[in-house]
């Protein structure tokens, strides 16, 4: 079992602020790290899949980095908007298993 | 169609009832997953079907019985559940589910189950 931790648990930011949160894990023995965005009453939506140390992915104002040597991934949101309010989950994909963190709940205040 | 659908959205059942949760996808994916999520906890993998065969059963009690009638459908049959089984049950699919490379999962919105 891999213990995936996410911090902070929750975050409130003002519209226009940039923010970031962390996914940390104890081992580099996995196939991929996944980031998901989960809005209330909707399906978790895949944001990024990262497989290599040093990977950087970007989608609009959201980007992510992966450091497998030190055991963390960062998710950055530039110029937060109210529609970014959601829970952001990370998951490690191992052999026939996915290990999820508990998520970071982001609220963007207009 | 990149959607995974789940029915029902909400389900309330007694401990002696038998009910089923349904999941459907039409993306041609050959792997489907059931997860259970309790409040403030991470989703926990219960079952994986790959090419319509059960490949993973994470020591789930027998009161949960999965079924994969074809590559587009996944059911979870429930019988004699306990109140502690109340949770959000999420279904997901991915292209193959095979180990050795990553599997991007597409999730449904979940079924909120309450056991009285």
Describe it.
The complex is a heterodimer of chains A (110) and B (116). With 110 residues, chain A is mostly beta strands. Chain A has strands at 5-7, 10-14, 19-24, 32-38, 45-50, 56-59, 62-67, 72-77, 86-94, 97-100, 104-109. Chain A is globular. The mean pLDDT of chain A is 93. Chain B is an all-beta fold and 116 residues long. Helices cover 0% and strands 55% of the residues of chain B. Chain B contains no helices and 11 strands. In chain B, the strands form 2 sheets. In chain B, strands 2, 4, 5, 6, 9, 10 and 11 form a 7-stranded mixed sheet that branches. Chain B is globular, with a radius of gyration of 13 Å. The chains are: A mainly beta (110), B mainly beta (116). The A-B interface holds A 4, 31-32, 34, 36, 41-46, 49, 51, 89, 93, 95-103 and B 4, 33, 40-45, 48, 55-56, 58, 90, 99-110.
Topology:
The complex is a heterodimer of chains A (110) and B (116).
Chain A: E1 5-7, E2 10-14, E3 19-24, E4 32-38, E5 45-50, E6 56-59, E7 62-67, E8 72-77, E9 86-94, E10 97-100, E11 104-109
Parallel strand pairs in A: 2-11
Antiparallel strand pairs in A: 1-3, 3-8, 4-5, 4-9, 6-7, 7-8, 9-10, 9-11
Chain B: E1 4-7, E2 10-13, E3 18-25, E4 31-37, E5 44-50, E6 53-57, E7 64-70, E8 73-79, E9 87-94, E10 106-107, E11 111-115
Parallel strand pairs in B: 2-11
Antiparallel strand pairs in B: 1-3, 3-8, 4-5, 4-9, 5-6, 7-8, 9-10, 9-11
């Amino acid at each position: 079992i891999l213990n995936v931790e996410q911090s902070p648990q929750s975050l409130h930011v003002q519209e226009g602020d940039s923010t970031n949160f962390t996914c940390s894990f104890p081992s580099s023995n996995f196939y991929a790290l996944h980031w998901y965005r989960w809005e209330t009453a909707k399906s978790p939506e895949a944001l990024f899949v990262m497989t290599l140390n040093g990977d950087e992915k970007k989608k609009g104002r959201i980007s992510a980095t992966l450091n497998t040597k030190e055991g963390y991934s960062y998710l950055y949101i530039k110029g937060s908007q109210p529609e970014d309010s959601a829970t952001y989950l990370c998951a490690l994909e191992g052999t026939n298993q996915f290990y999820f963190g508990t998520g970071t709940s982001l609220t963007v205040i207009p | 169609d990149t959607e995974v659908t789940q029915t029902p959205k909400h389900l309330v059942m007694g401990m002696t009832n038998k009910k089923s949760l349904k999941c459907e996808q039409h993306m041609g994916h050959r792997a489907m997953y059931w997860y259970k999520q309790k409040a403030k906890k991470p989703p926990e993998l219960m079952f994986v079907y790959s090419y319509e065969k059960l490949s993973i059963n994470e020591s789930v009690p027998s009161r949960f019985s999965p079924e994969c009638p074809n590559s587009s459908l996944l059911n979870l049959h429930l019988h004699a559940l306990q109140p502690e089984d109340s949770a959000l049950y999420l279904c997901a699919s991915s292209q193959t589910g095979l180990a050795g490379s990553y599997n991007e999962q597409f999730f449904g919105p979940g079924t909120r189950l309450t056991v009285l």
